Amino acid sequence: MNNLEIxxxxxxxETFIAAVAAQADxxxxxxxxxxxxxxxxxxxxxxxxxxxxxxRKNNVKVYxxxxxxxxxxxxxxxxxxxxxxxxxxxxxxIAQDLGxxxxxxxxxxQLKLHASTQAAIHNSYGVLEAQKAGxxxxxxxxxxxxxxxxxxxxxxxxxxxxxxxxxxxxxxxxVCLMSSFIGGASGNRGMCAQPCRRRYDIGAKSGxxxxxxxxxxxxxxxxxxxxxxxxxxxxxxxxxxxxxYKTVKAYKMLASDDGIQTANQARALLEQDxxxxxxxxxxxxxxxxxxxxxxxxQIGAYIGKISFQNGKIQVKTDVQIxxxxxxxxxxxxNDKYFKVNILNLNKTGxxxxxxxxxxxxxxxxxxxxxxxxxxxxxxxxxxxxxxxxKQNFEIKEKEIPKPKHAKAKSEEKLFVKIDDLNWLNxxxxxxxxxxxxxxAKQNLSKIDALKNINYxxxxxxxxxxDLPQFQAAIDKLKNKTFFLxxxxxxxxxxxxxxAAKLNAGAFLYSLNSFAANFLFKRKIENFVFSYEDDFYNxxxxxxxxxxxxxIFYLSGFPQLAxxxxxPHKDLRQEENFSSQKDNFKVINKNGQTxxxxxxxxxxxxxxxxxxxxxxxxxxxxxxxxxxxxxxxETMLGAYSGKIQLQNDFEFNFERKLK
Length: 658
Prior knowledge:
- This is Putative U32 family peptidase.
- The protein is built from 17 helices and 33 strands.
- The protein is an alpha/beta fold.
- It folds into 4 domains: 5-168 and 213-274, Alpha-Beta Barrel (TIM Barrel), CATH 3.20.20; 181-211 and 558-599, no CATH class; 301-371, Thrombin, subunit H; 413-556 and 601-640, TIM Barrel (Alpha-Beta Barrel).
- Helix 6 (146-153) packs parallel to helix 8 (221-227).
- The chain is globular.
- 49% of the residues are buried.
């Protein structure tokens, strides 16, 4: 069994101090830009410099999250930030963007690279290829089980990090476009509007069907030690100092001592994290109890149902209530919550009478404790003793040349992406031989029928157990072109580098020239523009002579979320659901839940603008559409300009990717 690092979140100076006081081994945080938690308070440059020095004095490591996708125009600022992080002596940078990885490895070799969970690395191929690319540590996807983690660990000597406590995303991180689709605020750029926490309508029913409970693996420390991981990560850069202190302290206790008494003390602390209900997700076995459809909020520790009369609450509970506590009353049926101000408090046995001036309280409401007043005072005393000295600093800027790409001009090419072989009966008579076939798990058994297809796309998520099956299928498809959607996909071709041609799919993001350069160095010939990218960034890439290398989606149903969660029973297969003005549909296949827009993205009317930039390669995506000759002919007519289609949705093309 190895010594486990306890990795704490910090979204502010106060939570940073709390993490150090709780004896965290390492802390991860973000600066004001390029962090996947842009809505956290985060750290100014001077705060960061001082905190790094404070951490060093306390033998605590500092990892900096620079884990968003970087637009072309942002490269200069991103490079300055990396230089600043390196100059301050941080221990590592956590990255998603392949361009950031390219820059760090080439120009800042003193900085260790950690692959963010946003990189969606979920199997041994991903870990091995990330390690080959220069990453020293990989933060594994939250979706993995104990057995999968153990299997991955046995095949690599890379450091592995896993989330053990805190909020879960409905989608696999890094392949979620849902927030971006709704309003342009991308989860891949730290701007997630949390669409999975919305209320959704399914027919006559309504609920928070995509809002998962919080993760808690505190009961499985023994398995985590056996799994071969190096670090246990606590989610919570937007949480309070009290949350950070309690969770770090608890996991530190559990990792250091297997005793029953210690375990009980630690779990008592975790019961007071005042967050959502808990789940172990997929860690031991796939759970059917992941969602809390009644509410998406962090409601705290349940106290009991109240009776309310004349400004006084009556409630019976075993939960200790003190005058300095923060309480909240819930009208669960209407998903409304009200702060309860404690003016006076009396206790008789386990019965409390709370005098309050809070409005809107009613008998039958549920009362929750969201902050422990006594513990808060104790924590303030502990953290007030920590002195972070302010220090002057001077950073010498570093000039880094952008990658140069030769200008080229190829012939125009139209690809047609399909997920059903019956489309071939329609495509082939039309003369289009550029079909891209989705090599999903259910299609692997049809490999002998696929030999006349020249292009294949690999799915963004491939389970560890399915790697041999995919490898065998790919080995049979010699001299074909493959679209890759994860860094791990490169490993399928390590023994036959010359036989296959490689393109980067939309989930192997290339929003800047350094990311494109990373891909080209690995024999990628072309890259697909992300569905969520905008015209302005694509124009900037064209100025770097990358237009001819780009392939653009003109139409289709983009995957907005890919989830490994067992869907809530009300979220039926291919059933439409909605929230406010946004309409979606759900597909359940091969243990995955895929969220699609109800109506397709259509961008045929942007063709002339795209061609002026030098883009010559385009995709009509027929995935998730039943083979239909009329529909295909309509798409071809729109492409040729003979048919004018009303645009159902343009994604971020004109409104900009935030």
